[in-house]
Design goal:
Blueprint: E1 3-11, E2 17-24, E3 29-33, H1 40-55, H2 63-72, H3 80-101, H4 105-108, E4 117-125, H5 128-140, E5 145-150, E6 172-173, E7 178-181, H6 183-201, E8 206-210, H7 217-227, E9 234-236, H8 247-253, E10 258-260, H9 271-275, E11 281-282, H10 291-304, E12 308-309, H11 319-331, E13 338-339, H12 345-350, E14 356-358, E15 361-363, H13 376-379, E16 387-388, E17 391-394, E18 399-400
Parallel strand pairs: 4-5, 4-13, 5-8, 7-17, 8-9, 9-10, 10-11, 11-12
Antiparallel strand pairs: 1-2, 2-3, 4-15, 6-16, 14-15, 17-18
């Protein structure tokens, strides 16, 4: 079997997605997600100009060798553009392999380690009362785990709070919108949210929260300690992790479980966090971390150190990435939970898929490969529209982390 062609497809059914379609001489094609929110066309160019010419004529079953070829052969390794492009190729190759062997990808990864995948939804509101109401809606849908975000008094906008509740999308057309931020007000307000949620929903519901890289280590330690009475499933992205060692401070002061990694691109972004057991969940995503091949190795390292997975699963990952994540999730031993932000009907129509939600869990389905297709004609009706994630400033105008 040989690769004879590869197309890079761009569509915008409410938000931008980049898809790589690899075709073989036997007529089997595989799909990979190549979406990098706000930098989509950089990956398109990287794939078209540099990656696709290098894989024509190769055997698509050689997933490990092709991965190493694209990673080591580039000389300048890593980074979100390169790793997203490699991930797209990797996903498409696993898809081809599953289709050629007429089996779901999870069977090629060791088979099922569980029957279904626990997921969490995103509840958000402008204040604590509205957030509580939104959590109730997710509970009514059958969710067993919910991430909760609330507006902060005195701030006109807050990360994670959106007008469209079920299909949260932070990117916006035009130039990047600017948010305002106050760490002091945030640290005072968030514990009140989870006190309310525990009083309302009791102890059985898994509750999660995302600080979105906005705290220093000692501030994160303070927040984690204040949230201990409400026993969160995890506190996510409390601190930026360019300095992985910074999490030693957080770990020393709180028993609230810590999750990190959605902006990571390689195992080197997380190896200290894992080997020193400074986090409890590694949140790296299939599409931005080099695909299934690389994430399997990260999960294997994490398992040794009692770290579980919690893959990023936002709406800026197409259903192809969601499907790949589910095949990965259901196959590994140290799975923890999967983020699940629902796509719009328009997106689901462009990417018809076999996975489905039931009673708080996602099921990957049993179709060969990843179980996702791509409606080319429908996709052409949604042209690319440049969009950016917001930027964030403190109240005094200082540029801060979004």
């Amino acid at each position: 079997m040989k690769i004879i062609a590869a197309d890079v497809l761009v569509t915008c059914p409410g938000r931008n997605f980049v898809t790589l379609r690899i075709q073989t001489e036997e007529g089997i094609y595989g799909l990979g997600d190549a979406t990098l929110n706000g930098r989509e066309m950089a990956v398109v160019s990287y794939l078209r100009e540099h990656v696709v010419p290098c894989i024509i004529g190769r055997d698509p079953f050689e997933t490990e060798d092709i991965w190493q070829y694209l990673y080591r052969g580039a000389y300048w390794r890593g980074g979100p553009v390169t790793m997203t492009a490699i991930a797209a190729v990797d996903m498409a190759l696993w898809d081809i392999k599953g289709k050629a062997l007429n089996t779901p990808v999870y069977n090629l990864l060791g088979g099922k380690s569980r029957n279904r995948v626990l997921v969490y939804g995103h509840a958000n509101g402008v204040d604590i009362a509205e957030t509580s109401d939104e959590v109730a809606k997710y509970v009514a849908l059958g969710y067993k785990a919910v991430r909760a975000q609330t507006g902060i008094p005195g701030l006109s906008s807050t990360y994670g709070v959106a007008q469209e509740k079920l299909y949260y999308e932070p990117a916006a057309t035009g130039l990047p919108p600017e948010n305002l931020w106050s760490t002091e007000q945030y640290l005072l307000h968030v514990p009140k949210l989870f006190e309310r949620l525990r009083l309302t929903f009791g102890d059985d519901l898994h509750l999660l929260h995302d600080a979105h890289h906005r705290l220093t280590p000692i501030q994160a330690a303070r927040l984690g300690k204040s949230l201990e009475p409400h026993h969160l499933f995890w506190l996510e992205d409390a601190v930026t992790a360019e300095l992985q060692e910074g999490f030693r401070i957080v770990r020393h002061h709180t028993t609230t479980p810590l999750a990190l990694g959605e902006v990571f691109n390689s195992i080197w972004d997380a190896h200290i966090l894992i080997t020193e057991q400074l986090i409890d969940y590694i949140r790296m995503t299939i599409v931005h971390s080099g695909g299934i091949t690389h994430l399997k190795k990260i999960a294997a390292l994490a398992e040794i150190y009692h770290v579980q997975t919690g893959c990023h699963g936002a709406t800026d990952l197409s259903p192809i990435s969601m499907a790949a994540a589910l095949h990965f999730d259901i196959s590994i031993h140290n799975f923890g939970i999967q983020e699940y932000m629902r796509h719009t009907k328009e997106t689901d129509d462009v990417f018809p898929h076999a996975y489905y939600f039931a009673d708080g869990y996602l099921h990957p389905g049993d179709k060969p490969g990843l179980g996702v297709d791509y409606d080319v004609k429908l996709a052409e009706r949604f042209p690319y529209a440049r969009a950016y994630l917001p930027v964030n400033r403190k109240l005094d105008g200082t540029m801060w982390n979004w």
